[in-house]
Amino acid sequence: MRKKIIASIMAMTLCFSLAACGSNNVSADLSDSASLDEATTSESTESDSEGESEVAKIQEAGTLVVGITDFEPMDYKDDEGNWIGFDADMANAFAKSLGVEAQFVEIEWDNKALELESGSIDCVWNGMTLTDEVKSAMDCSNAYCNNAQVVIVPKDKADDYQTVESVKELNFAVEVGSAGASEAEANGLNYTEVNSQANALMEVAAGTSDAAIIDSLMAAAMVGEGTSYADLTYTVGLNSEEYGVGFRKGSDLVSALNDFFKASYDDGTMLKTAETYGVQAALIEQ
To answer: Per the omega criterion (within 30 degrees of 0), is the bond before 73 cis?
Structure first.
């Protein structure tokens, strides 16, 4: 049944075949095989034309502070309380390639640009959709995953809500400041903003909202038979989009991460990590 759920999401979004699982045993492989060579590292640590090198700053500090939310399968905690997921493993490996450790900080998603600008975090790495608003507020990495926003409803009502027009009568829960909120606004839907996509699902499960709009990657991990929300399902795909990582304007961490992405994609370690969390069909060639 799990495979049927994932196959359905692929059909709706045209590019996803996803199933969540949890493990962080690939981070060491990623960092070892995808670490940049000495020439690339030397280039990335040079000061850019707009100011002091942020690569040098984090190397001096010894940590890369990563802004996230609880978002399976990208960033979530294992039974020991460690952050794992595709994004978390990649962030750990990138940090190690620079000779530092990743420190994960949960943020209010709607405040991500402010958190970045204030210096409380070094990057936003949490399945972040590359919208025009995001790209105007921060410098972003190359896109690394495809995604879509999908409508979540109770399974026993799914047949009634198979088109955008049919869901316009529903009251939605969406994450504040998210791509889901943008899609609700764009489609003229009635919605209430909550703190996270996980809370949006809880609203539907509790019956306090008729439906939710969340990322298809998250839907594959948390909705449908064999998941945390077996009585919920997806129906309508609202868009297609891409994920990227955000940094402060002018940061040389952008080029350092793009180089890391290219190296880890070419040697297969990015794919290995994606397979661990079931997001391999969403990967974008680097």
So the answer is: yes
User: What is the CATH number for 168?
Assistant: 3.40.190.10
Whole-number CA gyration radius for the chain: 19
* pTM tops 0.85, yes or no: no
Residues 137 and 269 placed together within one structural domain of the fold: yes
> How many other CB atoms are there within 10 angstroms of residue 135's CB atom?
12
Residue 8's domain comprises 2-146+241-282
Give the model confidence (pLDDT) of 228-247 as tens digits: 899 999 999 999 999 999 99
